[in-house]
Design goal:
The structure is a homodimer of 212-residue chains. The first copy, chain A, is α/β, with parallel strands linked by helices and 212 residues long. Helices cover 42% and strands 17% of the residues of chain A. In chain A, the strands form 2 sheets. A 7-stranded mixed beta sheet of chain A has the order 5-6-4-3-7-8-9, with helices on both faces. A two-stranded antiparallel sheet of chain A has the order 1-2. The longest helix of chain A has 19 residues.
Chain lengths: 212, 212
């Protein structure tokens, strides 16, 4: 699939399409018009058509979209139709929470092991997956062809961990440490506090009853 | 401050400005030009000036921005200069991880209590904060003038919990359950999996060595 030229903005909308389509499919909706889809997504219909055209387009004139087919197509574009072996570095609360997070496994993300330096954690299991000492990070990645490395460690350790994972052949990094790590492979830096700050701003600046 | 008309896009950039300025201040940088700021933020300089003008503007022609003053101004706009009493509903892994998350407290978010239905959790303490039975949710919110309610509960419980918190006077909702809750107060729905899916897309669609 020629998707290298798809813009960052389109890529970032794909998971949202996926989420809404999952919801429609669960409700038993069989098809949806681009105007209905645009209403629930808060995007205009021509934007949606343009987005889908980046991947060859999925709709039929006058029919709209077949929910299950569209869902399958978008899942395939997001590569949720195959397995992504992953590991988590940092077996503290965030690492453990991610192991228990609803749905990742169903969507093909297979968190196979955790790594930590804490001797009280090493050797234990979380949801059946072992916590190894971080000394074994590189060999585990190599031996198990791990694709995704999750950083759930301290800020001060994050960049060095990213570098080590990349040197061992990791393909992408999902970083929860509160600084942006730099890497030659794709990185998603998650800043949970951003949405909390937006919320704080809104609740202090929006009058009661004001439309959002 | 008249900030009601600030656009959603500007509001969503504020936490990023804040993060970068914290980093600059920690490095000991005293001032920064709008072009330097634009380079590290990946925004163009006129965008940054426009954003700041929404709040009265903070720069001086030819001088750029004084890092500490700008940081203080943006922290004040984000209302990080005062305390936001908050509670967490759901004392499982996500709720507990949020209690331990680096920095929220320093930035004024005071998670005072957790709530759960699980009798094995009720009565325990996380970081010194008690887990109450969810029956006490409304009275606790009222008696303690809680501003922010965090939903770290199951998908099926999320909307009902949001409704209960709003009826008890909560001002904003930070939702981690994997569905968008609707409310008359500001809501931030966090979808952790969105960034994971974007990562999966990128690592499958970007050639090795390709510029991101």
């Amino acid at each position: 699939m020629k998707t290298n030229k798809v813009s960052e903005a389109v890529i970032r909308r794909l998971p949202r399409y996926y989420r809404y389509l999952v919801q429609l499919a669960q409700q038993g909706d069989e098809r949806i018009s681009s105007s209905e889809l645009s209403a629930i997504m808060g995007l205009n219909a021509s934007q949606i058509r343009q987005d889908f055209n980046c991947f060859g387009g999925f709709g039929q004139q006058g029919y709209g979209y077949h929910v299950k087919s569209l869902l399958r197509e978008i899942a395939a574009i997001l590569t949720l139709d195959h397995t992504h072996p992953a590991i988590i570095v940092g077996a503290g609360n965030i690492g453990q929470a991610l192991m228990y997070f609803e749905g990742f496994e169903k969507q093909g993300f297979d968190f196979r092991a955790l790594f930590d330096v804490n001797p009280e954690l090493v050797g234990k299991r979380i949801r059946g997956r072992e916590i190894f000492h971080v000394d074994r990070l590189e060999s585990y990645i190599r031996d198990n062809e791990i694709e995704i490395g999750v950083i759930a460690a301290r800020r001060s350790a994050a960049q060095a961990l990213a570098d080590r994972m990349v040197s061992a052949g990791i393909k992408g990094i999902w970083n929860f440490a509160p600084l942006d790590v730099q890497s030659s492979v794709p990185v998603e830096n998650v800043h949970l506090s951003d949405s909390l700050f937006v919320l704080a701003f809104k609740l202090s600046n929006m009058e009661a009853g004001e439309e959002q």
